[in-house]
Amino acid sequence: MDQAFLYLVLWALIFAVIFAILIKKGWTLGGGVSKKGKRERLDTGFVRNKWQEIQTLMNQGRPSAHKVAVMDADKLLDYVLKTKLGTNGTMKDRLIKSRNLYANYQTYKDVGFAHGYRNRVAHDERLELFPAEVKKVISYFERALRDLKAL
Predict the structure, then answer these.
(1) pLDDT tens per residue across span 59-69
(2) Would you tell me which of 26, 102, 122, 145 could form a disulfide with 150, CB atoms 3.0–4.6 Å apart?
(3) Roughly what angle, to the nearest 10 degrees, separates helices 105-123 and 63-85?
(4) CB contact burial 10-25 (16+ within 10 A = b; e otherwise)
């Protein structure tokens, strides 16, 4: 056999062994998985602190504070879903995959509504925020976080 071919086969085997070891140690190209190969652990203390900040914003009663509260609640739910599901993609992808994590279908539907409301808040500069509607949306996020055992 040709010596160059043997060197090529040897290098291929070396790379295959290294790649297999990296995969066994948990190396991935995906998100939601730590460098040690385990999903990030849900930090419920962080979630509770952020939720308290959201409640403080809601108590201010200003439309600008309500806007930030909705945005932060959505980001907080996204953090929880990332740690629970360990998936890449968009928040919408995580919402779809999270269907079975909620106590009932209504909570799942309400979370979808709340995320859609967040998108309107983020992208429609002329959207008028009504306190009662914002409180309802925030309550949907809270119920989802409780179902996910994050609060």
Answers:
(1) 998 999 999 99
(2) 145
(3) 130
(4) eeeeeeeeeeeeeeee
